[in-house]
Specification:
The protein has 359 residues and is of the alpha/beta class. It has helices at residues 41-46, 109-118, 146-149, 152-164, 181-192, 205-215, 228-238, 256-263, 290-295, 309-319, 338-348; strands at 2-5, 14-17, 27-37, 63-70, 82-85, 88-90, 100-102, 106-107, 127-131, 135-137, 172-176, 197-202, 219-223, 243-248, 266-274, 299-302, 329-334, 353-358. The radius of gyration is 20 Å and the shape is globular. The protein starts with a strand and ends with a strand. 45% of the residues are buried. The protein folds into 2 domains: 2-151 and 325-358, Alpha-Beta Complex (Quinone Oxidoreductase, Chain A, domain 1); 156-302, NAD(P)-binding Rossmann-like Domain (Rossmann fold, 3-Layer(aba) Sandwich). Strands 3, 4, 5, 9, 10, 17 and 18 form a 7-stranded mixed beta sheet that branches. Strands 13-12-11-14-15-16 form a 6-stranded parallel beta sheet, sandwiched between helices. It has a 3-stranded antiparallel beta sheet with strand order 6-7-8. 29% of the residues lie in helices and 26% in strands. The mean pLDDT is 96.
């Protein structure tokens, strides 16, 4: 099969032939129709983000494609059906604290790297080997829409946080980092889940206004000033009532003080979920006051990625018409132009835009 291979950090992807994957029990081989390219993927491939990747490797986290072959323990998947491939691969020998690798992107700890040795290659190839439990039927789709369905991977991340913190219909959610890719997707996902109001924070007023225009009157935006007291006042004033839930999706370069400011707006008995990258590049630790957390009965939760069941739930949101992914602007590149796709994602990627590679 043809694949895009990263041989060394900081070098261009090599488009070469690799042996076809070999099917084993508990595995599925998928013919890749489209695979997403993250806007920051160039930073991963250069080594700037220092993601754990054992090279050489085929990058690419997640894909949409058709089942080519299934293992003997699969009872419902059918050869030829359209599926989405979840890149969050979990070890099977400890259900309570499984090791995790993000297939084609990264790994968590030594156990994740060990898992990465087997599910080594990602989606930027004509075929990929995927654990059976990571393959989710999409139902009938038009082949031309395969790239559009790749956008699920963008929405899935904030969806995992909203499920973990149990966002309920009618509640008011505050999204910190709302003008980023994941943040904007989080606003849209929360509305699809029935949030009564989403308070969206950011520093770019034009981006905030475009969120309001795109997603409607249940979105209320707040331009941040950097003054903690003033920003807290603005956030609370923008909400129609008490803020029930805070979702943080700030990027690695954001200060921890921005996380604190947003968190301190939540009501008594409120919930906070942390999903961003703050602190990954250094900086101060998050400092939330112990008495405030304790006396106000605040729930604070960290969440990385999402549970496997979220895939089917997200597909159902789209099929029900609650989440419209058709408005996401998709730009497709053939596999031979994988390097151009990475450059395009960095230069032109943004909110409600998606770059895909179509092998």
């Amino acid at each position: 099969m043809k694949a895009a291979i990263l041989k060394e950090f900081g070098t261009p992807l090599a488009i070469e032939e690799l042996p076809d994957p070999v099917l084993g029990t508990g595995e599925v081989i998928v013919d890749v129709a489209a695979a997403g390219v993250l806007p920051y993927m160039g930073e991963v491939l250069s080594g700037e983000r220092q993601y754990p990747m054992t090279l050489p490797m085929v990058p690419g986290a997640g894909a949409v494609g058709r089942v080519r072959a299934i293992g003997p323990d699969a009872t419902r998947l059918k050869v030829g059906e359209w599926v989405v491939c979840d890149p969050t691969v979990r070890s099977r020998d400890d259900a309570r604290t499984p090791d995790i690798t993000l297939q084609g992107l990264s790994a968590r700890g030594d156990g994740g790297l060990k898992l990465q040795k087997h599910f080594h290659h990602g989606a930027w190839a004509e075929q990929m080997l995927v654990p059976t439990e990571n393959v989710f039927p999409l139902g009938p789709i038009d082949e031309a829409d395969a790239g559009m369905w790749c956008v699920l991977g963008l929405y899935m991340v904030p969806y995992g946080g909203l499920l973990a913190i149990d966002l309920k219909p009618g509640e008011t959610l505050l999204v910190s980092g709302a003008t980023g890719n994941f943040g904007s997707a989080g606003v849209a996902t929360a509305l699809a889940m029935g949030a009564g109001c989403v308070v969206a924070l950011g520093r770019n007023e034009a981006m905030l206004q475009s969120l309001e225009r795109r997603l409607g009157p249940r979105v209320r935006t707040v331009k941040l000033t950097g003054d903690e007291a003033e920003d807290i006042r603005r956030m609370k004033a923008a909400a129609p009532g008490p803020i029930d839930v805070v979702l943080d999706l700030l990027p690695p370069w954001a200060p921890s003080s921005a996380v604190r400011t947003a968190a301190m707006t939540v009501r008594e008995y409120g919930r906070i979920v942390l999903m961003g990258g703050v602190g990954m590049l250094g900086g101060d630790d998050l400092a939330l006051p112990y008495p405030w957390l304790m006396r106000n009965n605040i729930t604070l939760k960290g969440q990385w990625m999402y549970p496997p069941s979220a895939n089917t739930l997200m597909i159902n949101l789209v099929r029900a018409g609650l989440l419209d992914i058709s408005t996401v602007e998709t730009t497709a590149f053939p596999l031979d132009q994988a390097n151009e796709a990475v450059a395009h994602a960095a230069a032109a990627g943004g909110r409600f835009k998606r770059t895909v590679i179509c092998p």
